[in-house]
Amino acid sequence: MKMRKLPQVVIIGRPNVGKSTLFNRLVGKRLALVDDQPGVTRDRRMGEAGLLGLEFEAVDTAGWEDEDAQSLPGRMLAQTQVSLTGADAALFVYDARTGLTPLDEEIARWLREQEVPVVLIANKAEGNAGESGIIEGWSLGMGEPVPVSAEHGEGIADLYTALSPLIAEKAERMQIEAEAEAAIEADRMRAAAEAAAAEGIELEAHDPGAPLALAIVGRPNAGKSTLVNKLLGEDRLLTGPEAGITRDSIAIDWDWTEPKSGEQRKIRLIDTAGMRKRSKVVDKLEKLSVADGLRAVDYAEVVVLLLDATRGLEVQDLKIANKVIEEGRALMIAINKWDVAEDTSALFNGVRAALDDGLSQLKGVPLLAVSAVTGKGLDQMLSAAFDLREAWSRRVSTSGLNRWFEHALNMNPPPAPGGRRIKLRYITQVGTRPPRFVIFGTRLDDLPASYERYLVNSIRKELDFGAVPVRITLKSAKNPFD
Ligand SMILES: Nc1nc2c(ncn2[C@@H]2O[C@H](COP(=O)(O)OP(=O)(O)OP(=O)(O)O)[C@@H](O)[C@H]2O)c(=O)[nH]1
Ligand SMILES: Nc1nc2c(ncn2[C@@H]2O[C@H](COP(=O)(O)OP(=O)(O)OP(=O)(O)O)[C@@H](O)[C@H]2O)c(=O)[nH]1
């Protein structure tokens, strides 16, 4: 689901002043974690907030962990700073019951240097216990403190009065823009659906929470079994029984904990029967493994091609890689057995260069070093796989696509064979997974393949598809404006 465009309001303050309680109050759902332990709010949380009809996006930030005002903890500071970029206003919360602390003063000093308008909130102001604390707030030089009780829902009208002039105009402008954009988008989607129907392509919606269908392929002995075992090893949680997809391949569902965010992410490992128990017939090994691997590719979103560091990149690997790309899957390459690799930087650079050479239609395929034995690089590999799926599943906004198209044609106009220019008129995205586009134009038969490659490379680079296979189809079109 796409979030509506709303002005952004960031809630800032030291731990335990009631930021999460305020966030919950504004968003109306128990989205943020509330706890008596200081520093409970670790990550930014966002939600659509309503305040007496004033709508905005509320962002709950991590508390300023360290009580030492001289050394604001870098991570928290950095996070808060990030959430302030693009924010339209900040709600700076302090605790009216405890009064100001040196850390409050430090945050205020820092906030005054930022460009964002601030509403100062004296929270926990119910009853009389906050009275002197409210008055103290004036000394921060951020105007009149707004007494609020986030817990009891008091002071909401005053908060509205203070906040609405800061964001109302922006909210209204965004609303108008959003409506206009939605109307254009609806038109475009209709056109795209028609074009897709003509192409026989289904427009599928991508659910980022769906399990990542991942296949690991590679030549015999590259270490696939070892890698799968390591991934599913001791500390991994198997979430389901092995479900057969076909007679030849099975899927193993498990939850992977992303180390950076601590988030649980679902992965469906597509395994082939042949990958686990292969024919003993040695001379058939090579053929079998490639065929098995490629069956898994059919069911995968992202494919990891495993190389053997002790052997480097071989022709067979390039064949597999090309096949994966032709199938339109998102490809990444992992050099395994890094623990026993020699001359690692030469090896890595050598493989990189050989890949870019051998996969000329798709430069910059993600390349990582891993060890199935020690586990090195495996978390990075999985993170990269999720990122890759994201790009592979992405739909570009109509405005972004048109901006790119205009820019690409301006930078490098299509040639004019025989003095008559080839006209490329408009572009539309007709599919995702992999991203597919149709460009309508005239005299397309004369368009050189190199120009088509230029467009594909540019769309990948400029619209952040990275090394995902992107497909462009050319269609002749009468000028719709004639
Ligand atoms: N009396 C009173 N207590 C409140 C009020 N708002 C929040 N609290 C309490 O203050 C404590 C901290 O609230 P949180 O919302 O978790 O504070 P926070 O600023 O998000 O804290 P961190 O997550 O540590 O940054 C909780 O025990 C709340 O119940 C209020 O208006 N009045
Ligand atoms: N040093 C080291 N050895 C590894 C690593 N990964 C796998 N091996 C070894 O490489 C050999 C092949 O590993 P397998 O996991 O059986 O390879 P495979 O790709 O599944 O092989 P097939 O089943 O033949 O396709 C085994 O001896 C593993 O112990 C690694 O990261 N480091």
Automatic annotation (TrEMBL):
Q: Where does GTP 2 bind?
A: 218-225, 271-275, 336-339
A GO BP term, please? ribosome biogenesis
CDD domains recorded: EngA1, EngA2
Q: Which Pfam families does the entry mention? A: KH_dom-like, MMR_HSR1
- By its UniProt entry, which InterPro entries does this protein fall under? G_ENGA, GTP-bd, GTPase_Der, KH_dom-like, KH_dom-like_a/b, P-loop_NTPase, Small_GTP-bd
For this UniProt entry, the molecular function terms from Gene Ontology, in alphabetical order, are: GTP binding
Keyword line: GTP-binding, Nucleotide-binding, Repeat, Ribosome biogenesis
Sequence ranges assigned to domain EngA-type G in this UniProt record: 7-171, 212-393
Q: Out of the domains of life, which is the source?
A: Bacteria
Protein residues bound to GTP 1: 13-20, 60-64, 123-126
Subunit structure as annotated in this protein's UniProt entry: Associates with the 50S ribosomal subunit.
PANTHER family, per database record: GTPASE DER (PTHR43834:SF6)
Physiological role: GTPase that plays an essential role in the late steps of ribosome biogenesis.
Identify its protein family: Belongs to the TRAFAC class TrmE-Era-EngA-EngB-Septin-like GTPase superfamily. EngA (Der) GTPase family.
Name it. Answer: GTPase Der
| Gene assigned in the entry | der
